[in-house]
Amino acid sequence: MTARFDLDMAAVATRLNANLLAMFDDSVNMAAESIINGSAVTGSPGQPVKDDVLRNSWVTEKLTPTHATITVPGSAPASDWVMQNEDGIARPGGGVYNLISPVGGRFSIAKTVAGFGRIVDAAVAKQGQALAGGGND
User: Is the pLDDT of residue 80 over 70?
Assistant: First the structure.
């Protein structure tokens, strides 16, 4: 192997690593968007909106380049609503589910998890377009 080949391979490896991290970042962002606002990719309706308290309670944390969380902290004003909305109970003490908001709906987390493969496919396609265009957008 020549020094030039080694340098070329190092450049390719650096670019692939950057693209992998960008795909992870895009996947996390798309998953959060799916849970919070809904997504055509996953079929998630997003969180119901009455006054944006539930939507604004979600926190996305990128802890390392390959580990992230999307949660509603227990201290958030809407923390007790999340699972009630997700499983359709939507009322402390039970009762009939009554979606008051014309925006959003149930099962956003479940639909995002079920559609995560499609999210990753979309992130890969986005990076493929960036590679073809020579850029990193």
Answer: no
